[in-house]
Amino acid sequence: MESIPYHMFISGFVVMFLQHGITWAQLAVCSENDIKFEITQCDKDNGFWRVAVPVNESLLCSPSSKPPLRVHGCDTFCPAGHYYSVEALECSPCKAGTYSSGNAQIYDDWPEIPSGFSTQMTTLANSGRSSLFTDSRLPSLSSCSKTTWTPRGDYISMQGEEGCMSRLLLEVDILQQTGSVDFEYQFPESGTTMFTFNVLSSDCRTGLSQKALLGDAISKSGSTPVRIFLDPTTRNSWAAVKTDLPKGKHTLVWTGISMIGQQDSSRKSIRIRKVQVSGVNYSRSCTVCPAGTSSPSGSSTCQECPMNHVSAKGSGSCRACPESQYALPGFLQCFDRPPCTEKDYLRKIGPCQSDGQGDLSFKWIEPMICKEDSSTSKLPATIRIPCPKCAPGTVRYNATACTVCDEGQFAGQQGTCQACPSGTDPAFKYEITSWNLVPYHFDSFCWSNSDLGCGKDTGWQLDGDKLLSGYGHEDDVLLVAQLFTAGFRKKISSDVYGQLTFEFDLSCKSPECQLDFLLEDTTSYETVKVKTWIGPQSRTKFEFPVTQNSSLAFTWTFTKINMQGAQLTSTKARQFGQDVARIFGINLTNTIDGGADKCQPCAGSGSQCRRCGPGQVWDTELTNCRTCPPNHVVSEHDASCVPCGENLVAENGKCETNCRVSFLGGKKHYDLTPLKGFHTVRTQHFFPSGGEEYYHVFNISLCETSPVVCANTAHQGSLVTSKNSVSGLICRTTHLVGDQSSNTTAVHSFVAGKELTHISTPDEDATGKVFAGVPPEIASSLAPDLYWHYRAIVPTSKCPTGKTTTIAMRCSKNSTDDWSNLLVPSECAEGTCDGCNYHLMWPTIYACPVCGPEDYTTVRGECISSQQKIYYHSNFYCRETNSSADLIKVVRCHSVPYSVQVLIVVLVGLGVLLTVVLAIFYKKGKKFEQRYTKLVQDASGVVHLQLPESCVDEHDLDSGQDQMDNGGTFDEDGGHFDLQIKTPSQTIFTKVKKAITKNSKRTLSNPIRDRKDYGGSRNEENELLAE
C-alpha cells in the first residue's frame, strides 16, 4: 500500500465521527487485531508518521493504545527477499511461498493490465499539422482499434495496423539515487513496424541520457537524450533490456508504430512478458507466488516447478505427479499420460556410408508425455536404408547433404554436374519431391509462448515423402516453413515470371487449425497473405503464378488454435497434440538460382546468358548473340534490348544522362551540370499526437552512375551503427527525433528509384497534377518544367509495377541552388499518396532554359572616340550562362554621329537622283524641240523648215534664191503659193513641193471632199515630213 499524507488520516476520522454522531471519548479502545499501521509520505524534514487505524472502516474503535509515531529518515531500503514491517519499523524476510524484490516492482503476470500501467492509441494522421494529412487513405482513430496493448496471460502484446501507433505507459517514482528498469520482449523482424522504448520525466520530456540508458562504458557525453530503438528478435527468442533510471518520477513508454504506406497483411505482434523496476519505495509486504511456482523463505523470485511437478498458489515447494501423469513446467495440475504411438517419436537419417546406405534411427519427442508399455507402440530399433536421393537439380557433395551445380552446369542423370551446351543456360528451379534431407534454400522453425512449447526447435519434421508440422508441440505454437529465391528469369507470359505448386493436407481435431500461405519480399519486408485454409483439409494441390521479379520468401505457417486469443495452456492438458499439417511436394519454376536438371535457350546476357558480350542478347531464332541497336541497352529484367528513354544515352550498358537536355526540336536547352552529384533532402517534421516526431530523408544521385545508400541506424551510446542498407539512385529513410534534433535514428530504408527511365517536359503526368496548386514564377510555355522519372521494379501486391519517383524541376530565379526548397504535394505531405508513387518538386534556376540567340535584345551605345559598345540583354525566362563581359561587344565607329551620317547619305543620294532626272528631261526636251520645230506653219501658209546647216550646199542655196526672186512658183491651175524654203536639200524640197501642189488641187476641185479627207492628207503630210 502506498504511503499517504498524515492530514488525510485526520480528515478521515473527522468525517467518520460526524457521520456516526459520536465523539472520540465514546469509542472503545481497539484490540491488537483490530488495528493496522499506515505511514505518511516523506515530508520536507526527511521524516514521516506511523499512524494506527482500524483494519476497516466499519469497525468503530479508538486506536489510542498506539499513538502516532514520528520516524526520522526516509532512505530506508530493504534487500531482495525482505519487506519493510511497519509494525516493527524494520526489514523482515518473506515467508515460504512468497517473494519480494526489495525495493523493486515486478510485473510478470498479465491476466489484465496491471495497476500503474495505461495505454494510448493514436494514428499518424492525427498530427499537429492536420492540413498536411488530407489523404482519405490514412486511417482514422476508429480503424486503429486493433492497435492496442492486450494482456495475454503470461505476456502483453500489440499487433499494429498501417498508420497506427500504440503506447504502453508505466509511471514510476525512483527514490534511490539510481534505479533501473529491466524488461523482456519479442519483436519479429519487420520492415513495416518499429518498436521503441523511452523514458519521460515529470515534465513529459525525455528523462534519460545515453549514459543513463546505455551505461558509462558506452557513452562519454552523458547528456544527450536518446530513445532506444529495439532490435528485432529471431524466431521465438526473447531479448532483455536493462536501463538505468535517475532519481525522480518518470514515465516508461513502450511504443509500437506501423508505418504509413507500408501495408502488411500479416503484421507480427510485439510482446512484453516481464518488467522489473528497481529503486522504488520498499515493499511493505511480500507477494504470494502464483500456482505452478514455489519459493523458500527469503526469496526474491518464485521458481517455476520442473517437469512433471505442480504446485498451488503460495506454495513453498512443488509436488511430483504420479507416474501415470505428466505436467510441463509451470502447469497448475497433472494430466494423464496418453498411450505412445508412432506420432510420438522422430526419425533421423544418418550419414551415408561407402556402401550407399545409412542408418535410420528413432527417438522420442521431448518432453516425453506419452505412456510406454507393452500394449502401446515401442520405439523402433535403428535400421539400415539406402541413401535418399537428392532433389531434382542437385547432386550429393558429401555424405549427408546435396547441393546445386556450379554456374553454367546442370545435374545430369548420373548424379554429376555437366556443362550446358553453347547458347543455353541451366533451367533453374526448386523442386522438392522427398523430405529425407533439408532442401536447399529451405528453413523452418517453431515459435511458442513458453520455452517448452515446441517439441523440436525446427518444429517441422522430415518424414520421407512429406514434411510434417510435427507432433509433441503445445497447442499455442506457431510453426513456420520458408522457401527462398533470389528472383526469376524473363517472363514466361505477359505478366508471370514463374509458378509455385505444392500439395498439402490438414489433419486436425481443432476447428481453428489454420494453414496460411504467404509471400514476403525479403528486400522491403512486405508480407502478403495469399491463401488461408481453416479446419481439416484433404490432400489439395495449389498453384500460384508469381507476378513479381524480386527476392522472395514463400512462407507456410500452421497454428492449432486462434493465435489472437492464445494464452499459455498451463491450465489445461494438451488437446490438439496430434493436429498436423503435411506438405508433400513443392515445385518453383523459372528461377535464377536453385537446381537445374536440364538446359534451355539463353534468356539474355550477363549472369543469365554468359556467352553473350556486353550490349548483346541471345537470338533464339539465329541461335547466336546479336548486338543491340544504337542507344539500346540490355534489360536486367527480361534480358532483351530496350531503347533508352528521352534525353538518355546508352553508356557502359546503362541509360545515362550528362545533365544536358533539349526539347522542342532543340529550341529549348537545359544545363543542370552544376547540380550533378549526390544530394540529401529532408521533408518537414511530422508531430503525431503520441509525441513520436519524425521526418523523411531522400538520398538522390543526380546524373551519376554510382548509387546512394540508405541504412537503418542503431545508437549504441556515442557509436552509431548501420544495418539493413539499401542502394539505388533514390532511396528514402525515416528519421525519428529525440529531444535534440541532431539525435535521430534512421529506420525503414527502401529504394524509391533504381534507374532513371527518361526526362520529359509537362504532359498528363501525375506529378503535374499533384503540384497544380503551386503557381510557377514563369509561364510554362516559356520555361516548361523538367520531369525526371525514376523507377524501382520490385513488384509487390500493393505496388504491382514497383515504386516510382518523379522529380519536377521548376524554373525559379528566386530559389537557392541547394535542395532546401524541395516541395512535396500539399495533400500528401510524406511525398506519396499511395505508398507506390513518390512526387517531389525542386524550384531552381538551373531548371530555366539556357538563353539562345533568339532570347537576346540588342542595345547600341554612343560612339565615343571611334568606339561603340553593343549590349545584349537576355529575356527574363531564360538562364544566362555568359559572363557580364561577354554580353558587351565593342566595335569601331566614326566621330560624326550615326544619325548625321545617315542624313548625309540620304541627301547625297537625293541630289544625285535629282541631277540624273533633270539631265534626262533636258535631253528629251531638246529632242522634242528639234522634232516639232522642223515643221511650222504660220497664218500665211508659209512653212518654215529649219534644217541643219551641214546638209545645205551653197550652190543649192543660191539656186533656190534665184527661183524665189523670179516670181515664185505656180501650180497647174495657176494658183500661186509663196513657199520659203530655208533648207538647202533639194530632195526634201521637191517632195514637199509635190505634196503641197497635189493637196492644193484637191482642195480647189472638191472643197467638201477635201475637207473630209483633210485628216488623211495631214497624215500623209506628216508621213512625208517624217521621211
Provide keyphrases for this structure.
disordered N terminus, transmembrane helix, 8 helices, signal, 67 strands, disulfide bond, 1027 residues, disordered C terminus, Jelly Rolls, single chain, flat, 9-stranded antiparallel sheet
What's the alpha carbon Rg, rounded to whole Å? 54 Å
Oligomer type: single chain
Structural shape: flat
How many E-type strands?
67
Q: How widely separated are the two ends? A: 157 Å
From the helix content, strand content and strand pairing, which structural class follows?
Answer: mainly beta
Beta-strand content bin = 35-45%
Average pLDDT level:
76
The description of the largest β-sheet is: 9 strands, antiparallel
- Uncertain runs are 1-11, 125-142, 204-225, 261-267, 565-570, 604-608, 715-722, 944-985, 1003-1018, 1023-1027
Work out the helix count. Answer: 8
User: How much helix is in the residues?
Assistant: 10-25%
Describe the structure.
With 1027 residues, the protein is mainly β. Among the domains are: 35-74; 104-124 and 148-205 and 224-281, Sandwich (Jelly Rolls); 342-387, no CATH class; 389-529 and 544-600, no CATH class; 660-847, Cation-dependent Mannose-6-phosphate Receptor, Chain A (Distorted Sandwich); 856-892, no CATH class. The chain has eight helices and 67 strands. Strands 7, 8, 9, 10, 11, 12, 13, 14 and 15 form a nine-stranded antiparallel beta sheet that branches. Strands 31, 33, 34, 36, 39 and 41 form a six-stranded antiparallel beta sheet that branches. A hairpin with a 5-residue loop joins β66 and β67. α6 (986-1005) runs antiparallel to α8. It is flat, with a radius of gyration of 54 Å. The N terminus and C terminus are likely disordered.
